[in-house]
Amino acid sequence: MFLVMTFPLQVNLLPLTKALWAQNIAHQVLEKGNEQQLWLMQASQAPQALELCQALAEGKLDQLAQVDKLARPGISPSGFLLAAPLTSGILLITMLLALMTGLGDELQYVALLSFYQINLLPDPHMVNSTAHLASQPWRLLTPVWLHFGWLHLVFNSLWWWDLGRRIEQRQSVRRLLLLFVFIALVSNLAQAWQGGHLFGGLSGVIYGLLGYIWLWDRLRTPVFFLPQGILIFMLVWLILGMLDVFSVVGMGSMANMAHLGGLLAGLGLALLLSVLESWSNKSSKS
């Protein structure tokens, strides 16, 4: 962490923090005594941060933001996606497979991605056995790309784009890839353990990313700053699903064990990686 500047308590730093995040400058504002301190994650970004601080002091922050927009006219779709390639790639795969499977209607394609095998002839039915997983290991992962309805797809895609991008841009592609694969495996296995039926969706991974982001910002120097309201909303959604409220109101059943398993997997990874990073930092200093 690198201290850039201090401000009186009465100064509203919200416009500054928005401008900093808009330029992907990871930072934290701390109150100490009678002042606010602006800390950066990377000292190399200090010149950009100081320019924004100066603009705030001169009341020109909005003007500077407009100039910056003109200097970078209309980000192309490809540039927008390349800013978070792994998040974008998984989102693209999700959309393509949703179309290929007809959102669950095209059973011949659903059968390729489901955790359990589906025998299509003479009548479609699930084969509730895991014996096939040794020869078809992709089934441990691919249920996350099965979605059953547009609402299911859109809901999961929006959450994945928000949470995945936070991790990819503020930590790394490798970290997001590790989280995606591990949480997907755990959430799928948890849902399969609950019962042998057709299930799918990115929501287990989303709960895992949510748990990871929340706990990481409490164990380490915060980098994600996830609004508390999002966490509360998602936890309420989880509890309502566990109570089977959605089935009662006609919204269908939820993959509750995938949600819970994913959440626990994300919390566990946050704890483990935080401890490993602490040990690594201590070793490098000794």
Please describe the topology of this protein.
Layout: E1 2-8, H1 14-22, E2 27-32, E3 35-40, H2 46-57, H3 61-71, H4 77-82, H5 85-100, H6 107-113, E4 117-119, E5 125-127, H7 150-170, H8 173-194, H9 203-219, H10 228-242, H11 245-248, H12 256-285
Helix pairs in contact: 1-2, 2-3, 5-7, 7-8, 7-9, 8-9, 8-12, 9-12
Molecular structure report:
The protein is mainly alpha-helical and about 290 residues long. It has two domains: about 1-70, Alpha-Beta Plaits (2-Layer Sandwich), CATH 3.30.70; about 80-285, Rhomboid-like fold (Up-down Bundle). It is about 60% helix and about 10% strand. The chain is built from twelve helices and five strands. The chain has helices spanning about 15-20, 45-55, 60-70, 75-80, 85-100, 105-115, 150-170, 175-195, 205-220, 230-240, 245-250, 255-285; strands at about 1-10, 25-30, 35-40, 115-120, 125. The chain has a three-stranded antiparallel sheet, with helices on one face. Helix 7 (about 150-170) runs antiparallel to helix 8 (about 175-195). The longest helix has 30 residues, at about 255-285. The chain is elongated, with a radius of gyration of 22 Å. The two termini are about 20 Å apart.
> What summary fits the major beta sheet?
3 strands, antiparallel
Instruction: Note the run of SSEs as H and E.
Output: EHEEHHHHHEEHHHHHH
CATH fold node name of the largest domain: Rhomboid-like fold
Strand order of the largest sheet: 1-3-2
State mean pLDDT (0 to 100 scale).
Answer: 83
User: How many beta-strand runs?
Assistant: 5
Strand content: 5-15%
